[in-house]
Amino acid sequence: MALTITILFIIAYILISAEHKLQVSKSAVAMFFAGLLWILIAVDSQQLVEAHLSEAGTEIFEIIVFLLCAMTLVEILVHYKFFELVRVWLVEKKLDNTRQLWMISILAFLLSAVIDNLTTTIILTQLSRLFFKGKNILVATALVIVAANAGGAFSPIGDVTTTMLWLKGKFSSGEIIMYGFFPALTIYLIAAPLLIRQAEAGDRCEPEVEEFKLVRSEKLVIAFAFGSFTLPFIFHAFHLKPYMGLVTGLGLTWLVVDALKRGLPNHRSHFTASIENLLQKTDISSLKFFIGILLAVAALNHLGILEMVSNSLFGDAPSLGRYVLGSSVMGVLSAIVDNVPLTAAATDIVKTTDPIIWVLIALAVGTGGSILVIGSAAGVVAMGIVRELNFVNYLKIAGLPALLGYLGGIGVWYVQYLLLF
């Protein structure tokens, strides 16, 4: 039975990885195979599987609620024109190509730590199209992908894989920031100059400066939305699950929006605001994918398959060097295969309670995907926005800078570990 389940999981993995080529939804594949694996286990098993399934379901519930609330808060920021404000600010600066690329990459690194790397990539890639064309738009897009993935890797809410590990209690919010920041910054600082130097003097657009201002009530909603992202840390300090913080923050922001709709009914932002409609704009398909893949990985764990993988990858009593090597390999694998199932499997494959090792794994899986454009959700989405970007030209422009940055980040983590522990 274990062999059958493993083969089916590998088939599902291949279908998920070839989603765009086969034109099949990875969410549908993940959910179907999750159900199939558990049915086979239930038919074959001599013992009830309800307890194991219930435990997996609880963990999945926490992750999905957290992500749904975070996505909705980001949609609120979009509706209330926060990113429009960023766009106008960049236009008014009238920077040359090099400075503009640095500014966009810094924004990508910092914003992704707050609103997640995928959303940051979508927003800043669209902004980059206003300023660059030709080869420079390819450089700018690659730069945004690498910077956003690096910035999201040191924040518990910056990348879905980091969020998964945080919600599973592998490290605290303080630990991922404290021990992940300098390696992530190193990845960015090595890759960014190597990418920016490839920019050409021309290939530039000149967007017109527009008059734009947020009214006080719009600023209030934006402040509440950003403030909501701090609540998971506060709730966690009181030994409450982080998702409760975002649930509370979204509820409070929702109340503020409803109050402003009644108080300022003639203002367009408030009149057209509807949290129900914004919920429908969130990427529900991705949430379904997470549900399916996490249930499928739970099936592998139930049969002890992940225990065998752990022993082959890290050994029975892994040393620090074995952890570093194994994590680095997982990071490179994340450039080829989807990092969500890879991270989900890692939570059961890696047998350690050391949070610093888990920070390394989060960094590796979160940033290793930058080496190839198909290695991260940010890269795949960016290809959809910038049609000129493809696998080959991304590899030529960003493959080596991303790889050198990745290796540099792993190296800084290792030196940091030796100095502190």
From TrEMBL:
The membrane-spanning stretches of this chain are: 28-48, 60-80, 100-125, 137-157, 177-196, 220-238, 244-264, 285-303, 323-344, 356-385, 397-420
GO MF term list: antiporter activity
Query: Which keywords appear in this protein's UniProt record, sorted alphabetically?
Result: Antiport, Ion transport, Membrane, Sodium, Sodium transport, Transmembrane, Transmembrane helix, Transport
Where does this protein reside within or beyond the cell?
Membrane
For membrane topology, the record states: Multi-pass membrane protein
Start and end of every Citrate transporter-like domain? 13-366
GO BP of this protein: sodium ion transport
Q: Which Pfam families match?
A: CitMHS (PF03600)
Q: Which GO terms describe its cellular component?
A: membrane
Q: Does the keyword Thylakoid apply?
A: no
Would the keyword Cell cycle be found if you checked this record's keyword annotation?
A: no
Principal place of residence: membrane
Give the similarity note. Answer: Belongs to the NhaD Na(+)/H(+) (TC 2.A.62) antiporter family.
Q: PANTHER family, from UniProt?
A: SODIUM/PROTON ANTIPORTER 1-RELATED, SODIUM_PROTON ANTIPORTER 1-RELATED
Would you tell me the protein name for this molecule?
Citrate transporter-like domain-containing protein
Tell me what organism the protein belongs to.
Candidatus Aquicultor primus
Taxonomic classification? Bacteria, Bacillati, Actinomycetota, Candidatus Aquicultoria, Candidatus Aquicultorales
